[in-house]
Design brief:
By secondary structure, the chain is mainly α. The protein folds into 2 domains: about 70 residues, Orthogonal Bundle (Arc Repressor Mutant, subunit A), CATH 1.10.10; about 30 residues, no CATH class. About 60% of the residues lie in helices and about 5% in strands. The radius of gyration is 19 Å and the shape is elongated.
Length: about 120
């Protein structure tokens, strides 16, 4: 886990969310257990459980008594919606603010984006 990326339990939750978003952990599939996550990341099982329980509280995972935690129906769409909103707040709003300061019209910005080539 990365000490610079916030609390470890949040990193565990983010890892599970990323797997749901990218499709490697589909809806209705079983999420890794807190013991599996703890062993993999070499962290306390209670810390891993805190990350999983946060996802339950958020409606991303649900518990099946005696079986484990599973990805909730609609979880991927819920996460995509939240992340798109966060993307707009973090990137688009500042981009539009700066473009306005520079006198760049929205259609000019769209043209810049359309012409942008990935340098990789």
């Amino acid at each position: 886990m990365n000490e610079d990326a916030g609390p470890i339990f949040r990193q565990v939750a983010d890892q599970i969310e990323n797997a749901i978003v990218d499709g490697s952990l589909p809806e209705e599939s079983q999420a890794p257990s807190s013991n599996e996550l703890a062993a993999f990341h070499r962290i306390n099982p209670a810390t891993a459980a805190k990350g999983l329980n946060q996802l339950v509280a958020d409606g991303v995972l649900y518990k099946r008594r005696g079986v484990g935690m599973f990805v909730a129906p609609g979880a991927r769409e819920q996460l995509l919606k939240r992340r798109r909103s966060e993307f707009a707040d973090q990137y688009v709003r500042p981009l539009m603010t700066e473009a306005q300061k520079l006198g760049i019209a929205p259609h000019e910005l769209t043209d810049m984006i359309d012409r942008w080539e990935d340098p990789r």
